[in-house]
C-alpha cells in the first residue's frame, strides 16, 4: 500500500468519518492529521469501537448489584461474584458482517476474539454459547452460510478445548443476506487473580505477543460499522483468518504468565488491533504509550505504518509487564514457542506516540481517541409499519382443522426442531464439567472443587422486537432468566449483544431505544444487572434493516448440585402442572408465522412482577425436591412445550395425557391460541402426585396460578377437551419430526 | 503407582485425564511436557486428546516428532503401558506404535456424542475388569476418527486379538447405524501385538462419573491400576 499524498474529503469519507468529525479532529489536534493518524481516528471513532450512537442509551441499564465485581464498560468484560473467592467473567459479541461474506472464518474469528476478551482478564474460559440467525434454509446460499458458520465455530472452539454448551438458532427471512452470529464466552477466575486492561507505571515495557501482523482484517472495525451491500463481497479481505492453535498457545502462555505476578495489564488486539489496544490501555490507566512499529513482527513485506496500526490479524495480545521482569516473561513465552517482543513503553504524557524507527508517524492524546470520541443522540421516530400490523383480530384467522398437523409442522420447523445437527459438531463435553448438555433450557457447568454449578443460556426473539421492541426486550431477559430457573439456578446477571439496523435511520433508533428500555426494566425487576455487552448496528440487507434483535446471555448460579433439574418427563404417573396462566395471545407467535404466514399482531404482554413470582415459585419447588422436571413454555406455546417434555430425552421418551378442562380460561380462549399461543411467564413442571399439594401451596403463597393438566403415561401425547380428542400423536412420530427438522435425516 | 499425562502444544484433554487419575482414582500423576526427552518413574503414560499442533498437515503428524515421542517409544518397547485417547491414538498411529490410519468421519463433520463400544478382549492391562462382550457407554468427539487399515493389517489384528473395542448398539450388536464414523470393521480401539499400547477414539475420561452420564470409562483406568499393582506384588 502507498500513502496518499494529500488527505482529501473523499478520503475522509472513505474512512467512514463525516466532514464534521474531520473538522473536530483538526480542531482537537490544532493541525491536519497525517494519513496514519486519520486511520487511527477512523477506527477509534467507528461505531464498533466508540459506541457513539448507543452510549447515551446504554446508561439506562442497571449495572450494579451485590454480585457485580467489575461493572460494564470498565474493562473488557464484566465480572460477577459466585462466592468462595471465585468470579465469572462473561461477554458476548457479534461477528455478523464477517460471517456474511466469509461464514467459516467470520464465525471462527468471532469465537477467537471473544475468548481473548475473557482470558485477558485472567479467567480461564470454560464455556461458549452461540446465538445464530439466518434466512430460510430453502435458499442454497443460506444453507452455505449456516453450515459454514457452524463449521467455523466448531473448528475454533473444539481446537481451543472450550466446550460449546448452548445457544440458539433461528431462521427468518429478515436475516437474509445479513445473518447474525453472536458468540458468548464465559470464564472463571479466582477473584484475586483478575487482571485489568490498563497501562500504568512509567517506563514499564509494552510487549507484543502472538501471531505476526499481516494485512488481513485491515479496517475491520470500519467495515463492521457500515451496511452490507451487494458490493460487500469485495470486503472479503477485511475478514480475518483464524488460527485456533496459535490462540490455544496464547491462552496457556498468558494464564501461565499471570501466575508469575509480573503482568501490569493486558488487552487483546481485536477490532482495530494495535491502535485500540495501545490507546485503550493507556486511556484506562490515565497514562500514555510510545511504541516503535519497526519492532512489530510481520508476515508481509512493505507494510506501511497505517497498515500496521489498522491490521486486525488475529491471535495477538498487548501485554504490559513490570520493568525488569523481561526475563521471566520471555521464559514463559519461549516455552510456548511464542513471540514476546518489546515494542515500546508506558509514558506519562497522555499521548499515543507511534514511531517507525526515528520517524514520528503519529502523536495523538489518547483521550481524543477514547473519551473524547463523538457521541450522538440520534433522531428517532416510531416506525409507520407498526400502525399497519399491530392490530390483528383473532377472528380473521381461520381455525385449523387438524391440530395434529399443526403440531407436526411446528416441531419440524428448523427454528423449533432439535438442534442436534448443530451441537453435535461442537465438543460440548470437554473439561468434563458439562452436567446438563445442549438441548435443555440452559446448559449447566459444574465448578470442580465446589458444590456449585453455573447455568448459561442466551435468548432473544427478533419477531417480538419487530412488533413491539419494548415488550420484546423485556421478554428476552425474562425468558433467559426463566430458562436458568428451570434448571434450578438463580439468575445473577446478564450480558447482551444488541443487533440493529442503521442507527441514523430514525425508526431503527426508536427500535433501539425501546429495546434498551425493555431490557433495562426487566433487569431492574428481575435483579439481574447488565455486566457488559456489545452493540452491532448497520445490520441491513438491500430490503432494509433486520428485525431488531437483542440477544441476552444469562448467568445463573446453582448453589448446590442437587438442585439441578432437567426439562423432560421422567416417571410414569407423575402429574403435569402448569405454573402461570394461559391468555389468548397469538400475536407474533411461531404458529401465526408458520401456519398463517403472518408476522403481525400484539405480542404477549409481560408482567414483570408475575414473572418474578413464577420464577420464585419454580425455584422454590425445585430446591425443595418437589418436582421431577421443569421446562419453560416459549416458542410454539403449550403444545410444543409438552411435546418437548415427552421426546427430548432421546431413548427415554415419556408420553402424556392432558385434560384441558383444568384451565378455567378454557371457555374464553380459542383452541389454537391455547395450544400454540406464546403467553409469557409459564413453566411446565412434572411431579410425584404426593407433592402436588405442597407445590400448590408454594404457588398460592406467590400468587401464581397452578393448574394440574394431566399425567405422564404411555407412549403418545394426547390432548383432550371434555373427553373429546383435540390432538393425539405417537411419540415416535413426534420425535421423528422434531429430530429431522434440521438434519433432514442425514446423520 | 504413577501415571504420566503427556502435554503437546494443542493438547486439550490433558487436564481431564489428570483429574480422573488424581481426583477419582486417587493415584499419583504428573504432566510431562512434550519437550522432555526422558520418562522415568512412570507405570502408565497417557497421550491425551486435543489438537496437537492444531492438527495441521494431518492429525498427529507433527506431534510424532516432538522430543518426548522417542522416549515414549522406548518406554513402550520396555513394556510400559501407554494409552492414546483420540488425538493420542492418532499420534500413536503416526508414530507407528500402532498400525493403521485415520480418515475423516463418514459424514465429514465433527461428531460429539455418547456411543456404545463392546469389549472384544479382556485379557489386557486396560480391560481386565471388563467382561468379553460388555457394552461401555463412552463419548466420542472427533472429526478424523474413521479407522482404516488394509485387509492384511485387519487380518493380523484379528489373529492376535488386538481389536480391543468395537462400536456397537446398546445391546452389543454390530450395526452400521451404530458405527458413528465409518470405521473399518467397527474398530474403536486397538492394541499393539504385545498388548501394552492401547489406542482408542472414545474418551473414557469423560465417562468416569455418573454425573456426566456414565462411569463406564473408569473401568479402563481401574484395569490399568489393577494390572500395575498386581504386577508389583
TrEMBL record, chain B:
InterPro entries, sorted: Class_I_gatase-like, PRibForGlyAmidine_synth_PurQ
A Pfam family it matches: GATase_5
Location relative to the cell: Cytoplasm
EC numbers, comma separated: 6.3.5.3, 3.5.1.2
Keyword Nuclease: no
Protein's job: Part of the phosphoribosylformylglycinamidine synthase complex involved in the purines biosynthetic pathway. Catalyzes the ATP-dependent conversion of formylglycinamide ribonucleotide (FGAR) and glutamine to yield formylglycinamidine ribonucleotide (FGAM) and glutamate. The FGAM synthase complex is composed of three subunits. PurQ produces an ammonia molecule by converting glutamine to glutamate. PurL transfers the ammonia molecule to FGAR to form FGAM in an ATP-dependent manner.
Full protein name: Phosphoribosylformylglycinamidine synthase subunit PurQ
Organism of origin: Aerophobetes bacterium
Amino acid at each position: 500500500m502507498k500513502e496518499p499524498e494529500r488527505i482529501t474529503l473523499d478520503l475522509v469519507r472513505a474512512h467512514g468519518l463525516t466532514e464534521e468529525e474531520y473538522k473536530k479532529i483538526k480542531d482537537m489536534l490544532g493541525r491536519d492529521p497525517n494519513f496514519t493518524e486519520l486511520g487511527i481516528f477512523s477506527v477509534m471513532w467507528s461505531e464498533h469501537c466508540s459506541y457513539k450512537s448507543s452510549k447515551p442509551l446504554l446508561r439506562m441499564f442497571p449495572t450494579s448489584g451485590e454480585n457485580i465485581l467489575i461493572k460494564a464498560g470498565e474493562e473488557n468484560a464484566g465480572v460477577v461474584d459466585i462466592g468462595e473467592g471465585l468470579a465469572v467473567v462473561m461477554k458476548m459479541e457479534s461477528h455478523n458482517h464477517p460471517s456474511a461474506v466469509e461464514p467459516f472464518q467470520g464465525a471462527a474469528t468471532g469465537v477467537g476474539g471473544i475468548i481473548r476478551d475473557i482470558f485477558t482478564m485472567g479467567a480461564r474460559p470454560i464455556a461458549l454459547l452461540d446465538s445464530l440467525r439466518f434466512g430460510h434454509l430453502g435458499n442454497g446460499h443460506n444453507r452455505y452460510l449456516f453450515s459454514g458458520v457452524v463449521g467455523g465455530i466448531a473448528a475454533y472452539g473444539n481446537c481451543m478445548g472450550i466446550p460449546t454448551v448452548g445457544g440458539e438458532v433461528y431462521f427468518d427471512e429478515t436475516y437474509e443476506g445479513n445473518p447474525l452470529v453472536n458468540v458468548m464466552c464465559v470464564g472463571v477466575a479466582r477473584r484475586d487473580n483478575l487482571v485489568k486492561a490498563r497501562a500504568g507505571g512509567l517506563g514499564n515495557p509494552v510487549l507484543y505477543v502472538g501471531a505476526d501482523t499481516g494485512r488481513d482484517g485491515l479496517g475491520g472495525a470500519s467495515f463492521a460499522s457500515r451496511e452490507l451491500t451487494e458490493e460487500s463481497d469485495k470486503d472479503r479481505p477485511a475478514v480475518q483468518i483464524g488460527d485456533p492453535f496459535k490462540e490455544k498457545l496464547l491462552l496457556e502462555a498468558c494464564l501461565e504468565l499471570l501466575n508469575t505476578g509480573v503482568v501490569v495489564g493486558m488487552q487483546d488486539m481485536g477490532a482495530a488491533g494495535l491502535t485500540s489496544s495501545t490507546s485503550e490501555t493507556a486511556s484506562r490507566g490515565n497514562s500514555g504509550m510510545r511504541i516503535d512499529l519497526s519492532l512489530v513482527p510481520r508476515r508481509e513485506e512493505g507494510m506501511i505504518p497505517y497498515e500496521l496500526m489498522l491490521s486486525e490479524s488475529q491471535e495477538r495480545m498487548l501485554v504490559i509487564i513490570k520493568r525488569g521482569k523481561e526475563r521471566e516473561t520471555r521464559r514463559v513465552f519461549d516455552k510456548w514457542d511464542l513471540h514476546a517482543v518489546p515494542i515500546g513503553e508506558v509514558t506519562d504524557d497522555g499521548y499515543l506516540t507511534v514511531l517507525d524507527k526515528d520517524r514520528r508517524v503519529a502523536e495523538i492524546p489518547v483521550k481524543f481517541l477514547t473519551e473524547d470520541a463523538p457521541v450522538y443522540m440520534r433522531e428517532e421516530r416510531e416506525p409507520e409499519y407498526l400502525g399497519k400490523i399491530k392490530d390483528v383480530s383473532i377472528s380473521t384467522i381461520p381455525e385449523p382443522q387438524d391440530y395434529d398437523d399443526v403440531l407436526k409442522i411446528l416441531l419440524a420447523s428448523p427454528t423449533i426442531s432439535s438442534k442436534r445437527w448443530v451441537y453435535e459438531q461442537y465438543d460440548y463435553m470437554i473439561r468434563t464439567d458439562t452436567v446438563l448438555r445442549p438441548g435443555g433450557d440452559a446448559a449447566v457447568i459444574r465448578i470442580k472443587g465446589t458444590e456449585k454449578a453455573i447455568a448459561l443460556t442466551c435468548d432473544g426473539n427478533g419477531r417480538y422486537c419487530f412488533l413491539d421492541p419494548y415488550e420484546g426486550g423485556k421478554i428476552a431477559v425474562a425468558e433467559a432468566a426463566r430458562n436458568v430457573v428451570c434448571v434450578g439456578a438463580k439468575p445473577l446477571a446478564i450480558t447482551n449483544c444488541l443487533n440493529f439496523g442503521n442507527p441514523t435511520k430514525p425508526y431503527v433508533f426508536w427500535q433501539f431505544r425501546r429495546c434498551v428500555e425493555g431490557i433495562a426494566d426487566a433487569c431492574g425487576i428481575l435483579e439481574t444487572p447488565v455486566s457488559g455487552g456489545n452493540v452491532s448496528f448497520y445490520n441491513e440487507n438491500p430490503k432494509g434493516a433486520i428485525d431488531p434483535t437483542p440477544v441476552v446471555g444469562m448467568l445463573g448460579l446453582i448453589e448446590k448440585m442437587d438442585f439441578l433439574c432437567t426439562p423432560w418427563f421422567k416417571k410414569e404417573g407423575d402429574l403435569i402442572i402448569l405454573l402461570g396462566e394461559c391468555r389468548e395471545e397469538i400475536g407474533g407467535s411461531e404458529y401465526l408465522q408458520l401456519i398463517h404466514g403472518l408476522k403481525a399482531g400484539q405480542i404477549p404482554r409481560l408482567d414483570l412482577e408475575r414473572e418474578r413470582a413464577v420464577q420464585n415459585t419454580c425455584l422454590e419447588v425445585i430446591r425443595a425436591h418437589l418436582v421431577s422436571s421443569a421446562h419453560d413454555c416459549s416458542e410454539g406455546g403449550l403444545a410444543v412445550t409438552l411435546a418437548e417434555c415427552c421426546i427430548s430425552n432421546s431413548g427415554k421418551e415419556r408420553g402424556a395425557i392432558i385434560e384441558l378442562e383444568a384451565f378455567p380460561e378454557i371457555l374464553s380462549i380459542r383452541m389454537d391460541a391455547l395450544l400454540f399461543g406464546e403467553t409469557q411467564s409459564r413453566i411446565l413442571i412434572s411431579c410425584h402426585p404426593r407433592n402436588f399439594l405442597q407445590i400448590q401451596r408454594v404457588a398460592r403463597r406467590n400468587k401464581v396460578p397452578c393448574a394440574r393438566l394431566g399425567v405422564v403415561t404411555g407412549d403418545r401425547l394426547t390432548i383432550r377437551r371434555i373427553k373429546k380428542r383435540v390432538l393425539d400423536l405417537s411419540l415416535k412420530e413426534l420425535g421423528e419430526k422434531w429430530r429431522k427438522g434440521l438434519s433432514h435425516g442425514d446423520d | 503407582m504413577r501415571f504420566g499425562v503427556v502435554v503437546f502444544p494443542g493438547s486439550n484433554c490433558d487436564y481431564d485425564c489428570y483429574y480422573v487419575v488424581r481426583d477419582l482414582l486417587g493415584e499419583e500423576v504428573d504432566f510431562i511436557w512434550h519437550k522432555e526427552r526422558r520418562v522415568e518413574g512412570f507405570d502408565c503414560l497417557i497421550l491425551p486428546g486435543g489438537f496437537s499442533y492444531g492438527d495441521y498437515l494431518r492429525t498427529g503428524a507433527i506431534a510424532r516428532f516432538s522430543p518426548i515421542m522417542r522416549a515414549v517409544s522406548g518406554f513402550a518397547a520396555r513394556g510400559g503401558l501407554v494409552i492414546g485417547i483420540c488425538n493420542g491414538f492418532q499420534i500413536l498411529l503416526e508414530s507407528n506404535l500402532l498400525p493403521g490410519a485415520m480418515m475423516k468421519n463418514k459424514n465429514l463433520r465433527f461428531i460429539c456424542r455418547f456411543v456404545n463400544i463392546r469389549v472384544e478382549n479382556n485379557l489386557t492391562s486396560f480391560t481386565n475388569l471388563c467382561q468379553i462382550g460388555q457394552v461401555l457407554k463412552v463419548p466420542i468427539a472427533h472429526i478424523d476418527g474413521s479407522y482404516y487399515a488394509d485387509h492384511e493389517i485387519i487380518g493380523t489384528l484379528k489373529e492376535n486379538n488386538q481389536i480391543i473395542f468395537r462400536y456397537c448398539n446398546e445391546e452389543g450388536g454390530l450395526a452400521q447405524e451404530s458405527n458413528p464414523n465409518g470405521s473399518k470393521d467397527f474398530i474403536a480401539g486397538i492394541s499393539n501385538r504385545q498388548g501394552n499400547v492401547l489406542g482408542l477414539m472414545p474418551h473414557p475420561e469423560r465417562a468416569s462419573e455418573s454425573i456426566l452420564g456414565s462411569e463406564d470409562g473408569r473401568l479402563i483406568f481401574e484395569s490399568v491400576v489393577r494390572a500395575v499393582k498386581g504386577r508389583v506384588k
